[in-house]
Specification:
The chain is mainly β and 117 residues long. 0% of the residues lie in helices and 56% in strands. Strands 2, 4, 5, 6, 9, 10 and 11 form a seven-stranded mixed beta sheet that branches. The protein has a four-stranded antiparallel beta sheet with strand order 1-3-8-7, with no helix packed on it.
Length: 117
């Protein structure tokens, strides 16, 4: 059974920083892509950033220059360093992993990030 455990969400003031982490465990196989999606109230889930096994990254325009995604392949863990946070970054952040030859997609349970003064 595959499990994704997220951590690091919370309440932060505008301009502040948070670091999210997501650790994958279980019979997941080889992990190809790890990413973070976010969903604000009343909005669709959207990609914030993802990272391939070789380290290639992809960012939404709205987070470029403020967020940094990284991964530790030995630990099957992906991180999202979020700096200069804005109120519009408020959302539930979900970890996504694409793994195995079948390119199975797994989701974390979500972690709330709230940016407010």
């Amino acid at each position: 059974q595959v499990q994704l455990v997220e951590s690091g969400g919370g309440l932060v003031q505008p301009g502040g920083s948070l670091r999210l982490a997501c650790a994958a465990s279980g019979s997941i196989g080889r992990i190809y892509v790890m990413g973070w999606y976010r969903q604000a109230p009343g909005a669709q889930r959207e990609l914030a950033a993802d990272i391939a096994r070789d380290g290639n990254t992809n960012y939404a325009d709205s987070v470029k220059g403020r967020f940094t995604i990284s991964r530790d392949n030995a630990k099957n863990t992906v991180y999202l360093q979020m700096n200069s946070l804005k109120p519009e970054d408020t959302a539930v952040y979900y970890c996504q992993v694409v793994a195995s030859r079948e390119l199975n997609v797994y989701w974390g349970q979500g972690t709330q990030v709230t940016v407010s003064s």
